[in-house]
Design goal:
Layout (H helix, E strand, L loop, with lengths): L1 E4 L5 E6 L2 E6 L10 H15 L6 E6 L10 H4 L24 E6 L3 E2 L1 H7 L3 E5 L3 E3 L13 H9 L1 H10 L3 E2 H7 L4 E3 L4 H13 L3 H14 L4 H19 L2 H26 L2
Parallel strand pairs: 3-4, 4-5, 5-7, 6-8, 7-10
Antiparallel strand pairs: 1-2, 2-3, 8-9
Helix pairs in contact: 3-4, 4-5, 8-9
Length: about 270
Amino acid sequence: MKNPSTSDESVLLAVEGGVALVTLNRPHRRNALDTTVIRLLPEVVHEAAGRDDVRVIVLTGTDPAFCAGLDLHELGTTGGNLGLPDAAASRWPWDAPNTVVIGAINGPAVAGGLELALHCDFLVASERAVFADTHARVGQVPGAGLTVNLPRWIGQARAREMSFTGSFVPADMAMAWGLVNRVVPHQDLLPACMSIAAEITDNDEAAVAAIRRMYDQTETLPRSQALRWEETAARQWQAEHHDPAVVATRRERITARGRSMAAELRASQRP
């Protein structure tokens, strides 16, 4: 990845090929969230999302951890990292951008680190990844969406078990529960995420952004209301964006890609 930036090296940004890699970079603290990271991370993500050359954001951490949650050293002294940004433009972590965010979970994602992961669109995990909600173990409660988001990913009962026990969930169990989409060897994590990001960037940019908004809008609606909302949004899209010439242009690429993927699948299933 090229073009590393940000004035503080605790959050890194690099952009290449339509993909922004955002890296939590406090490995000596297992990428724990101190006041600086809590301030910088939304700024960096919003910066990446606002760039014309970025279609997908991949969020990860510098080994050995994804994010260990709030920095307990600061929490146990000044407690300054308990505060969340108040400005609407800096909502923690990134409720505003329409850019797809992939979480590349390279190690432990704990408490606030798990909350951070749950704000991604989906997660890909290294075999070294583990997940836990340890808020209760340090006498704290979640405040960045965990009790809202975690049940939507894995169900109420499993979410409550994680929060009430503080126990660690390994990567393979997290995938079985639906918390992560796939588990890959550690050295393959970023290449796998970049490959998925390339698949996304190959699609129509406006359509991907619109579908992402549809998922966000319909997620909390009752089923009947969600179906009506989606139908209305689809009709509006068709009226404003449908272009037969664009479909015709992309048709051959879509057909060729389908044949290629089918051939790869058949090859992988051969004994």
